[in-house]
Structures are given as C-alpha cells and as structure tokens.
Amino acid sequence: MKVLRAADHKRMPWKNGGGETVEIAISPEGAGLADFDWRVSTATVASDGPFSIFPGIDRTLSILDGKGMRLLIEGREPVLLTQASEPLTFAGDIAVSATLPDGTITDLNVMSRRGAVRHAVARHFIDGEKSLEFAKGIFLLFCVNGALTARTGAQSVELDAGDAMLLEESDGGKLDLSGQALCYAISIERA
C-alpha cells in the first residue's frame, strides 16, 4: 500500500497550455503525457475551451468542486456534468469542448491507454464504516474531502483531503473504510 499525499502531487501545465493539472499518479512512474499507460489527476477549469487531444486514450471525468461543466463531445448529445453526476467516460482522441455555465470547476480526470489497460471509476460517500471490494490489478482510492482510515489485511492508512492510496498489482480483496469523506475508487487492469 503506497500513500500519495496531497502536498507531494506534481503540478504541471495542460497539454494544450490552457490551465494547470495536479498529477496524483501515473504509470509507468516518470512517464510523460505521450507515453503513460494510465494517469490520475485533478484540474481547475476557469474558462471555456477545447480539451487536449490524447490519441488512443480513454478518459473518465468527475466534478469535484463548482457548479458544473457543459461538455460538447463529438458524436454525442451535450451533457452537463455536475458534482451529482456519475463519472463520465469518453474517448480522449475525439473533439471535446467545455463551457462553464456557473464559473470555475475542479475535476478528477482518469485516463488509460486503450488496448493496454482499462479503468473504472466509482464515487463513494463514507459516513461511518463501509467496505469496498477491489479486483486483481491496480486500485487507487482518492479522498476528495473529509478524512478516513483505510484498512486491508494488516495494513492501515489515514487519508485527508487530496490524499490517495495506491495498491499496485494486488490480488484483489476488501478495503475497510471508516470516517467521513467523499472519495473515488479507481480500478485499473491490464487489457
């Protein structure tokens, strides 16, 4: 179990130069935007505009803060993504643009290289105790706000807002959570 503290996340400009992203985790470690297998990051979006194009990448977006973002995704009906919306998955190599009807937002962006790995994202509200099952592969739990304790087997870790825990190449199992927090569970498996 590896703990990824908020203070240690890497800040970098967007691929298209339109803003800044905070990289939580990437694989392989040290990979760049052109050669990662998977990547988890957050971004603050303060103005309308196009998304960066990522050939061969699938993405999932979730709104963490703000009133929402309207997405125009090539080949789909426009969608308003809000904090109440389920995570939204789409191809990273098609034209996507965003408008902010009610101001700045912060999003969670999970990306994986199509054909090499695939990912799934689920939102969880923790109020007391909750158990999550995780499958074989890679599992990342990102704490958006609040605080929680995560336990699996004999290992235990405390997470605060912005922190994450990463289980690499796990055999699957159960994660026991306690506390009060909003978190996102991200599962990544080889294709």
TrEMBL record:
Source organism superkingdom: Bacteria
Name of this chain's protein: Environmental stress-induced protein Ves
